[in-house]
From TrEMBL:
The lineage of its organism: Bacteria, Pseudomonadati, Pseudomonadota, Gammaproteobacteria, Pseudomonadales. This is Pyruvate dehydrogenase. It comes from the Bacteria. Residues 184-286 form the Transketolase-like C-terminal domain. Keywords: Pyruvate.
Length: 340
């Protein structure tokens, strides 16, 4: 990376910050940002915007493209990889640099996200990748801006990956929550009231079902929920592992914490973390949560991501396992919601 690259990134960031876009979905937020970078007079020569449907900038033609454009510029690539093999090829073509935005999650397929489960597993295991699953346009915008700064101003290696959907009913993101969101999670909604409460974590499209589950718990079972939007379970788990390793190697030094522990500190109520990806994406958080932890994903209780009814029932079961409610309430909930 050169000083010219950093300057280009700053121009892109400043121009995007000057825009006041209406609230939109993650997909249309990225499309609007791509249009600004590609066509705005201040940025059209400062960034590369590659669209998967563009015949002039196909990934197969990139070796010659980069041969003619040897100076790195901020890269925003809109693609629709359905498998880890396709994404791996794309990452090799981009030299594992840039902000890669996948809109395959808006398309119908056998899985909830329209992508093969191996794609999510490859993202989580690739140390060069920082994957995000935003729930709203506000979250998406914050991630892209943070990625431009981290990759092209700070010069960090690797690439950012965003899973996009086209629903615009996600939470808004207050300015004071942006840094927490980029770290992987931030709290939404009010603090839970009453004696019985759980903590519900949701990522991307799964957050909508989490919000509905919270309403079911309160209305039907008098259980309050503390709600968290989790933009990156993988980033949370990586930071937690890094802090644990550092503490192990420095027994005399002050212990390091992590964003996950900091967010969930001060409460001992059960934590239910939900994703539309396979459950294994969330499982690594369990070792770093000092409370009963339930991970839910595609395949946990049904082929797709768990719906609001399963989330509510398993939250009740977590309370029953701790002796906070009677087990018969869990059985009643299974019958009431007709779950088998």
């Amino acid at each position: 990376m050169t000083a010219s690259t950093a300057q280009s990134a700053r121009i892109c960031i400043d121009t995007l910050n000057d825009q006041q876009p209406p609230r939109s979905s993650p997909l249309y937020t990225v499309m609007a940002m791509a249009n600004t970078l590609e066509f705005h007079p201040a940025t059209r020569r400062q960034a590369w915007v590659i669209r998967g449907q563009s015949h002039s900038r196909r990934i197969t033609a990139w070796p010659t493209w980069f041969a003619r454009n040897t100076e790195e510029k901020p890269l925003l690539y809109l693609h629709n990889a359905t498998s880890s093999a396709q994404l791996r090829a794309l990452c090799q073509g981009t030299d594992q640099r840039g902000i890669l935005c996948n809109d395959i999650h808006t398309r119908p397929a056998s899985g909830r996200h329209g992508a093969h489960p191996s794609l999510a597993l490859w993202l989580a295991s690739n140390p060069q990748c920082t994957p995000y699953d935003p729930a709203s346009g506000d979250e998406t915008r914050a991630i892209v801006l943070a990625g431009l700064h981290a990759l092209y101003v700070d010069g960090r290696p690797g690439f950012y990956y965003l899973a996009l959907h086209d629903q615009d009913d996600g939470p808004g993101l207050a300015p004071q929550d942006r840094q927490d969101a980029i770290k992987g999670m931030y709290r939404i909604g009010r603090e839970p009231a009453g004696e019985l409460h759980v903590r519900l974590l949701g990522a991307g499209r799964a957050l909508e079902e989490v919000l509905h589950a919270a309403r079911l718990l309160e209305t039907d079972w008098n259980v309050s929920a503390q709600l968290w939007s989790c933009l990156s379970y993988t980033r949370l788990a990586r930071e937690a592992r890094a802090a644990e390793r550092w503490n192990r190697l420095h027994p005399l030094a002050e212990k390091r914490s992590c964003h996950l522990r900091d967010c969930l500190a001060g409460h001992h109520s059960p934590v239910i973390a939900v994703t539309g990806y396979p459950q294994s994406i969330v499982d690594p958080l369990a070792a770093h949560v000092d409370a009963r932890f339930v991970a839910l994903g595609a395949g946990s209780v049904q082929p797709t991501a768990p719906d609001r009814y399963w989330i509510a029932v398993l939250a009740l079961k977590a309370l029953a396992d701790e002796g906070r409610i009677e087990v018969r309430q869990v059985e009643r909930a299974l019958q009431q919601y007709a779950l088998k």
